[in-house]
Amino acid sequence: MFYDRVKESADYIRSKADAGADVALILGSGLGRIVDIMENRKTVPYGDIPNFPKSSVAGHEGNLVFGNIGSTRVMALQGRFHYYEGFTMKEVAYPVYVMKLLGIGEMIVTNACGGINESFRPGDLMIIDDFINSVSDNPLIGANDERFGKRFPDMSEPYSRELRDAAEKAARDLGIEAKHGVYAFFQGPCYETAAEIRMFRTMGSDAVGMSTVPETIAANYMGIKTLGIACITNMATGLCKEKHSHEEVVAVANKSSEKLCMWIEKLLRDRGA
Ligand code: HPA
Prior knowledge:
By secondary structure, this protein is of the alpha/beta class. Helices cover about 30% and strands about 25% of the residues.
């Protein structure tokens, strides 16, 4: 049974990192540096965890890293699973189910994405206010296990108002300009066409990317409060002259990651204060 598989993963992780965690961090492409500021780190490679999916993409390390930022106990996911890799939506969201059984109540999910809102520039950081799932699939499809959540979960506040306000305040205190917007989930792995970006814009999207939404849906289903921060690494197709490349995405994300790290560090220190 799915529940038993998740429990086996969680039990193994608990046996390796018994301190536990309050907040989970999912780190997007080029945004893994935050683990460097975590204290008393303990690493659990994904490959050692029973039933955990196995990742493949270059630049996505596969580790759970436990540690402290201030008094907040953090579990960072260095590397995530993408739908375009061939994982099912359930597999993509698998770590979130594990979080639930580890007793984690909050999740901060980050990603690299393309900007659609023309007031954005590469390097900007955006608090995700809402999402559009443009992929005709969902991690919750299939028999429902009430131990995780309800059959028909509400999705009226997928990104917690309280956490967005806290993030906004932390950004203001640091002098970081936080953009806001709606994130559209595109399945990839090719980048969007210019026509698709016009469609996404018409639908009300400010940014587009290939992750985050499956994990957000699963987290909300299980009552894990979620904050999403997107790094705009490029303007989307048709809104920029250059062709997209993963190398460019990672390079811009790397550059912004210092700002993002400071922001998340402040947020977590304030949270524990
Ligand atoms: N589109 C989709 N995903 C992305 C992009 C993009 O332009 N940039 C980084 N991830």
